[in-house]
Amino acid sequence: MTSAETAERTAAPFPSAEPTPAGSEWWRTAVIYQIYPRSFADASGDGIGDLPGITAHLDDLQSLGIDAIWLSPFQRSPQKDAGYDVSDYCDVDPLFGTLGDFDDMLAAAHARGIRVIVDLVPNHSSDQHEWFQQALASAPGSAERARYMFRDGKGEHGELPPNNWESVFGGPAWTRVVEADGTSGQWYLHLFDSSQPDFDWSNEEVREEFRRVLRFWLDRGVDGFRVDVAHGLVKAEGLPDYIPNPEAGSMGGEDENVPYWGQDAVHEVYRDWRKILEEYPGDRALAAEAWLPTAERTAEWVRPDEMHQAFNFPYLQTEWDAADLRAVIDLSLRAFPGVGAPSTWVLSNHDVVRHATRLALTAENPQGHGIGPDSPGQPIPEVGLARARAATTLMLALPGSAYLYQGEELGLPEVIDIPGEARQDPTWFRTNGERYGRDGCRVPLPWNADAPAYGFNDSGASWLPQPAEWARLARDAQAGVPGSTLELYRTLLAERRARGLGAGSLEWLDGYGVDAVAFRNGNVTVVANTGSEPAALPSGIVIASSGPVTDVVPADTAVWVVDQV
Ligand code: NOJ
Asked: Could you tell me the keywords of this UniProt record (predicted)?
């Protein structure tokens, strides 16, 4: 059955549920929980998570206290980049289930008041996408090739790539094709793996196709999209050479003037999409994955006629240092509200070293490089966990919308010692193991301490090996246990909601020392101590604390205190 037929069978109009009234702009304050489907829960037992697995655990997410879920790709894909290589944008990959399973999951989430955002990957498709296969079979200069970025090579016989761009995953960003007559031919651009050819967004046919894709999922009732590589769709005119800054991280987060990131013309695409979303009821939203050097630059993606949210990667990339944190929070609260958008906050996702590990690294670790047994600056796990809990306690008190990544509510660390033969990230292969890549933050979740694969499924299979010490981090080992990371998250999310902190505002407080981030939001006083000496404890009642407090806030600890009544 083709995806169109499947869609017709199951796509009865399915309106978005209204957990909050229309016009509420729920995305301004929402806590959005990222599900990485292949590692969340596996109902089929094949070792890879799936949509029925998500449906089965929605009660756990509801009791955690989140407002929405974002699903990393589950669309049809050869899985060369864990689903970020899509071969059919309007179908579910059989690994994850069916469109019917998606509809069931969406209905079950909406019934619990949980909004659902899906990933959209517009920068590139899979090389198995029908369009790319047609392009390969067609001649240079054809309409089929014009959907992608094919160019003649340099050199006497076109034997050199058209420019010097490198793939985000390492190695050249160009691959040469063999033409139908067997000769070496043109080159195609792939900012990521060679299995992920870049679309040409100057082509109206590409734009029209993605309008169709947006409508397909909006018609099914999704509440919005997380837009992959939202800073990359449009490339600089003439594709000029570029020397990358290796410190900038694989997505170029700290580099200005990269000819394939952040080009002005990309904003037209999102103005167009915004109009489409506004045709639908229920406050549908677009969230940009755009790695840009500053909050000010990132805010360009959320101007009033563009997207609704952008991930605050400058915040994620800030070290555990009070002065740096105060500065990035200040800038964020000026930049995003400055264009009428909420600030977002995020500490972990499927592309970065989990913050329970990252915040204790003692050496540079550019984004996307990952960490393995030979990496310099190995963390002390207890320090990482204490800082992660404190960092989240700080983050969830900030006004705006916050993103959580599955497993951080359990305090999961990055898995550092995944054997080379088990690693699957294309970064690992494309750099010959020089960069470990992102597998360490993608290990399947532990649900039950005593079950096979810790309850990830019933079979015990797991697409990446789970560490032995994860039994004590399993959800059932933490549920109801005072002081556990899970209970800390539940408390923070319940208090955040009850006290309206997402819609609040921030007033900086002095008097807690240079190593403290101290502010008030509504009736909550927050002190996060990033230093090694204790900080003063505000007077009042402690309603949440990331670690034990006595009459002081110890190092690597954060508290929420309300006035005594
Ligand atoms: C960003 C995604 O988050 C990442 O996982 C993926 O590899 C690249 N985009 C390419 O789609």
From this structure: Glycoprotein
